[in-house]
Design brief:
The chain has 7 helices and 8 strands. By secondary structure, it is α/β, with parallel strands linked by helices. The strands form 2 sheets. Strands 1-2-3-4-5-6 form a 6-stranded parallel beta sheet. Strands 7-8 form a two-stranded antiparallel sheet. The radius of gyration is 17 Å and the shape is globular. The termini are close together.
């Protein structure tokens, strides 16, 4: 099976990953990947915003680490990217980040449903005891829709992240999903199939089959990402992700270079 690019990988600069980019690149070649992309958590304007991303003064170091991997593994296409948190009011900061280096793509992700609560943070798991799952989903997908509408991102990451710990609303969320995917299509965003969900409590790829089926019906393009935080996670469960994509009708995935997209066969 020919594997699509793994466009979601981290580095130790985010403070919760292990292994250098050269180690991820080596692993990618071992499992037969021909293209990968590093998309570590971007800095925020304030370095004390949280403790799971690189600092502002480490952005150049991050780029150098990726460039070193590109030099050491010329037989592997390695893209330079960022995973950027979308929060309302942060668009100017995202534009600043986008201008700093010649990125190949930006993944727009929503982690925060308030200024202080990232829904996927295991240290904030107790927050769920005080929250209604549908209200969380509503806020989350409203922000995901806003992220798509900015036009600042090539890819939207792990689109139903709030299910990570197994919390799911009992009410129908289809209208939320529809609105988000309509925005993604209108603003030319690809949807990421993120296999990290299979390693979490939800035991399901992000996004769900239901969301992916809607995305296919709206002709939203897709990419693949392992969300690797260690070299042995590179390309993990890609066969399941490809099977899922094909089962809803997808025959193509995307590749990016200098923020330009092209489609290739799965």
């Amino acid at each position: 099976m020919s594997l699509p690019p793994d466009y979601h990988m981290h580095t130790p600069l985010c403070r919760h990953a292990a292994g250098e980019p050269v180690d991820y690149a080596r692993r990618a070649l071992e499992i037969g990947l021909t293209e990968i992309g590093f998309s570590d958590h971007s800095p925020m304007r304030r370095d004390d915003f949280d403790d799971w991303r690189m600092r502002n003064d480490q952005l150049d170091e991050y780029v150098e680490k990726v460039r070193r991997a590109q030099k050491e593994f010329p037989q592997l296409t390695i893209r330079l990217a960022l995973e950027v948190d979308y929060l309302p009011g942060h668009a100017d900061w995202i534009r600043e980040l986008a201008a700093r280096h010649p990125w190949d793509y930006l993944i727009g992700s929503v982690h925060y449903v308030s200024d202080s609560w990232a829904v996927d943070n295991p240290h904030k798991l107790s927050e769920w005891k005080h929250r209604d799952a549908f209200e969380v989903w509503t806020t989350y997908f409203e922000r995901l829709t806003l992220a798509a509408e900015t036009g600042l991102f090539e890819i939207i990451g792990h689109a139903d992240l709030p299910k990570k710990f197994g919390h799911r609303p009992t009410r129908d969320c289809t209208p939320l999903h529809e609105k988000f995917l309509t925005a993604a299509k209108q603003h030319d965003c690809a949807l990421e199939l993120n296999t990290a969900g299979l390693r979490k409590d939800c035991r399901e790829i992000y996004p769900s089959r239901e969301i992916l089926q809607l995305a296919f019906e709206k002709n939203v393009p897709i990419t693949f990402g392992s969300d690797a935080h260690a070299p042995d996670e590179v390309g993990m469960n890609f066969s399941e992700a490809i099977q899922l994509a094909c089962s809803v009708g997808y025959t193509q995935t995307c590749r990016f270079e200098k923020r330009q997209r092209r489609s290739v066969s799965l």
